[in-house]
Design goal:
The chain is globular. Helix 1 (about 30-40) crosses helix 2, helix 4 (about 140-150) packs across helix 5 and helix 5 (about 155-170) runs antiparallel to helix 6 (about 230-240). It is α+β, with helices and mostly antiparallel strands. The relative contact order is 0.17. Strands 1, 2, 3, 4, 5, 6, 8, 9, 15 and 20 form a ten-stranded mixed sheet that branches. A six-stranded antiparallel sheet has the order 14-13-10-7-16-17. The chain has six helices and 20 strands. The model is unreliable at about 100-105 (pLDDT under 50). It has helices at about 30-40, 50-60, 85-95, 140-150, 155-170, 230-240, and strands spanning about 5-10, 25, 45-50, 75-80, 115-125, 125-130, 135-140, 180-185, 185-190, 195-200, 205, 210, 220-225, 255, 260-265, 275, 280, 285, 285-290, 295-305.
Length: about 300
């Protein structure tokens, strides 16, 4: 059986390779991509771009049809400034056994397929976002806002991201934002974070590995809290994550919650927190959405194809 394959290409991508039997669509917006995905209803969806192209397109699609991904395969061709989901998938694939594998219902070797969870986040009771790698509030969203102001500088992305995160720390560490969170055995716990992450992949923006021990396809996710501290401790943590690749489980200002199926978070203070998922800040009318309440739960499975 010949598969039906649709390739969604970010219009800013200048070169890429595809299979000859593919249907190609160049997109400048996720709503356009969603219309084509729903109209064609392909067996294999190939995204050529960064985390935002992949995640935003699927968000607009799933918001119209939550069952769209069932029976489908997703391939990511990394061509963006951020490709954190792809990095995690490659590492998962390398850890799988190299023995003889059965084939899928499309004739694809299972050893080329990584099945993983994706999350549904409900923000302020009415805004829904699907998360495929990592989502959260605080440092991650503020860093992306700072990063946008640094895009014009001709420096390596890793240094650019480090500079943006440094600027975000300076701003957020001056706040006194308080949150209540409930996740597994933690019920109505209070924290004063500068970062609160909901994680499926190990990478946090710009390729920073912040979690080395995640397990795919287990129906659960982890939450990570980066606590407030002196700027020196926060800078040391940032350097350890981004440059030295230290094991962050030994870092006293990083708290890892046990894996759970769902979690809730409520902002108690007047300080503003913004939500980010898969490399994009949640915005409305070109302004970041201020978060007051978040509910996170495992939404379903997604089959990634790595050819």
């Amino acid at each position: 059986m010949e598969e039906k394959r649709l390739v969604i290409v970010n219009k800013n991508v200048t070169s890429f390779n595809i299979k000859s039997n593919s249907c190609i669509f160049f997109t400048s917006g996720s709503d356009e991509a969603a219309r084509h995905l729903l109209g064609v209803n392909p067996d294999i969806i190939e995204f050529v771009g960064g985390d935002g192209t992949f995640s935003a397109s699927l968000n607009d699609t799933l918001n119209q049809n939550p069952d769209f991904l069932k029976g489908k395969f997703v391939k990511i061709v990394p061509k963006g400034s951020g490709n954190d989901r792809y990095k995690s998938l490659i590492e998962i694939l390398e850890e799988k056994s190299s023995g003889k594998e059965p084939v899928s219902n499309l004739g694809l070797p299972v050893k080329q397929v990584v099945t993983d969870d994706f999350l549904l986040v409900t923000i302020n009771g009415d805004i829904k976002r699907y998360v495929f790698n990592i989502g959260g509030l605080g440092l991650d969203s503020q860093t992306l806002i700072e990063y946008e102001a640094m895009r014009k500088y001709m420096i390596p992305p890793s240094l650019k991201y480090f500079g943006a995160a440094t600027s975000a720390i300076n701003k957020l560490n001056g706040y006194k934002g308080m949150v209540n969170y409930s996740a597994g055995k933690y019920l109505a716990e209070t924290a004063e974070p500068i970062m609160f992450l909901f994680m499926l992949g190990k990478y946090f923006g710009g390729g920073m590995p912040i979690n080395q021990r995640l397990i795919e396809n287990d129906g659960r996710f982890e939450s990570v809290i980066l606590s407030r501290g002196t700027n020196l401790k926060l800078y040391r943590s940032l350097i350890g994550i981004s440059l030295l690749k230290q094991d962050q489980y030994t870092n006293p200002i990083v708290k890892y919650l046990d894996p759970v199926e769902s979690a809730e978070l409520e902002v108690l203070s007047a300080d503003k927190f913004y939500f980010e998922s898969d490399g994009e800040v949640l915005s409305k009318n070109s302004k970041p959405v201020e978060v007051r309440h978040i509910k996170v739960e495992v939404a379903g499975k997604i089959n990634y194809l790595l050819e």
